[in-house]
Amino acid sequence: MNTAAAPEAQPSASELASGPKALGKGRILAWAAWDWGSAAFNAIMTTFVFTVYLTSQAFGGEDAASAALGGGLAIAGVVIALLAPVTGQRSDAGGRRKLWLGVNTAAVAVLTALCFFVFPRPEFLLLGVSLIALGNVFFEFAGVNYNAMLAQVSTPKNIGKVSGFGWGMGYLGGIVALLAVLQLFVQPSFEWFGASPENGLNIRLVAVFSALWFFIFALPVLFAVPELPPRPAAARLGFLESYGLLLRRVKAIYRTSPHTIFFLLASAIFRDGLAAVFTFGGVIAAGTFGFELREVIFFAIFGNIVAAIGAMIGGFLDDRIGPKAVIIISLIGLLVSGTAILVLGNGNYVFFGLPWAGSTTFWVFGLFLSLFVGPAQASSRAYLARLAPSGETGELFGLYATTGRAVSFLAPSLFTLSIAVATPLVAEGEAQRWGILGIMVVLLAGLLVLLPVKAPEKTAIAVVPER
Description:
By secondary structure, the chain is mainly alpha-helical. It has one domain (13-458): Growth Hormone, Chain: A. Helix content is 73%, strand content 1%. The chain has a two-stranded antiparallel sheet. The chain is globular and about 55 Å long.
């Protein structure tokens, strides 16, 4: 749900000056409101509602549409990987962090609203996939600038608490937005024209609702958090020179704290798998397990609640056994749960004399997936926060986002590849389930890369030079 920018290594005069004020609840609430609003794009558009609609039979069948969606998101991931490393760096250097947050957020809102024109016919599949993929690109660029503002609304003593509050707002916003969509469009409490399923009108109006929700709740941060002053020397860097500066910074971190780089690489891999769990969870629920849209939304609501609970439990354990242990336990839990869904599928079984349907499989192990996603995300951020020296947290979280997006094509690509390989080998309609295998491979790879990485208390603090 959250990504981060690559801001300057040292806090600017504006950031230092705003330190005491950053403790004000109003500024923190304004900042977290963006996370609340972003849930409309994350939970509704890319996970539980619109992508489920986009991968339905109306667009040519679940398998083909799912493969097309996976391919579109993979291309988006490549674009993000090529451009994201320097977008935050350059917006900060030019003193345009808030400007570009507003521009990219507006772009996401417009692209989301345009999904209203994706009618339930196969010829509109490419349009729908393109809008969602482009929306993901601009959403990540907006997130780069949004998370770079964390240092402006917190202090080194409460940065974790403020960051966690924003994450919680995202989960809560997703629940409220999904309930609104359920009551207004999918299973309406009253009769009105927007609830009509004819020609997919109700789902196409969900896109308009999501665009307005995101845009409205994104406004407070643009008024409450001040813009940063430009850094003339860095601002004069050319686009390609910005990559050179980024490379020099990575080399400096590797010299002073190599395990920071190792963790960035490991987390980039397993975080891509975590993102895929949510991105393709609703698609698999509908296509493989036959969930109706309202059932997908009910699952999404419970999934968000469980993920929030998991994040809080993980935070409790984080302070006692360390973030690395929490991440490892979470990844193992995800692998076990995902493998159970893959192996059991939509079949009917009898366990201990009791019937077990395919829908039960997804409800039980799907919620376990949600339970372990929360702590893996929260402890991953806490892990890096422990390595960040005062005044350089933003730069490290920027690299955290950069490395994450650099491999963001892995899970969608393997999801698509797994479906393609399985299609001629299994019965019609069964191939989509094997996309889970691609996600599990990414999570396993992230776990294996993480195992030899030193825990935060056993590695040196990273040092990030300005130039």
